[in-house]
Amino acid sequence: MELSDTTLNVLKNYSTINPNIVITEGNTVKTISVARNVLSKAELTEEFPASFGIYDLSEFLNVLSLVDSPRLKFEKDYVTVGDSTGRSSVKYFFSDPEMLTTPANSINMPEPEVKFTLDSDTLSKVKRAASALGHDEISITPVTGAIRLSVIDSKDATSNNYSIDVEGSYPDNVNFQFILNVNNLKVVNEDFEVGISSKLISHFKSKQSPTEYFIALEKTSSYQEGA
Fold first, then answer.
1. DSSP 3-state of 170
2. Residue 204, number of CB atoms within 10 A of its CB
3. Residues of 149-163 as b/e, b for ≥16 C-beta within 10 angstroms?
């Protein structure tokens, strides 16, 4: 079995959400952060022949990079990673899934009141602004005919901030300020359709691949009807 670049990119991204992972038999992979405020699911082009646990996903990905064009052969307790020539290989043992952090159930996303498109260029600008300003909050608010994403420090009204407007929609006569922690915005570098529910959960669905994320919003968020 060989893993595509797309699958490797998904697994690299998942290693930033949770250091370990349980991969189930089939072509769907899931992960959840230790704090259980970020959950992701992706459908792959490959199908794994068995379920197994990886304690250190970053280490496993580094093992794959040790050989040229890695081929994976699965056994009961381990996987053998060999190169294209068959001259070198690595035996990598699985971990007990019971010892790892795994999503218990899928999330039933409430109907989102706020929807917008977030392309990879805009996402990159927002993350760069957060790094430059030293802030870790993204404020999502309504503006005329659009949605405004602002990098802020909600604890300091006089702090510098960065804003960018994106195409989106929301109900009439509502006022909201959803707060998203930048550190939870660990998504692949793709374009997303984003939905946000007043129940303080957001859904990021990729426009390029069958990859989606459910990210909890901060409790300081607000949503008011009839505003």
1. coil
2. 22
3. bbbbbeeeeeeebbe
Alpha carbon distance 73, 20 (integer Å): 20
**Best CA proximity match to 206, nearest among 217, 221, 195:** 195
Is the per-residue pLDDT at 8 higher than 70? yes
Calpha distance 139→165 (Å, rounded): 12
C-alpha 183: how far from chain center:
11
- Mean per-residue pLDDT over the chain, rounded: 92
Q: Is the pTM of this model over 0.85?
A: yes
Separation CA 224–CA 227 (nearest Å): 6
Q: What angle do CA 191, 132, 178 make, to 5 degrees?
A: 55
Model confidence pLDDT, tens digit, residues 91-116: 999 999 888 988 877 778 889 999 99
Tokens of 168: 């989106």
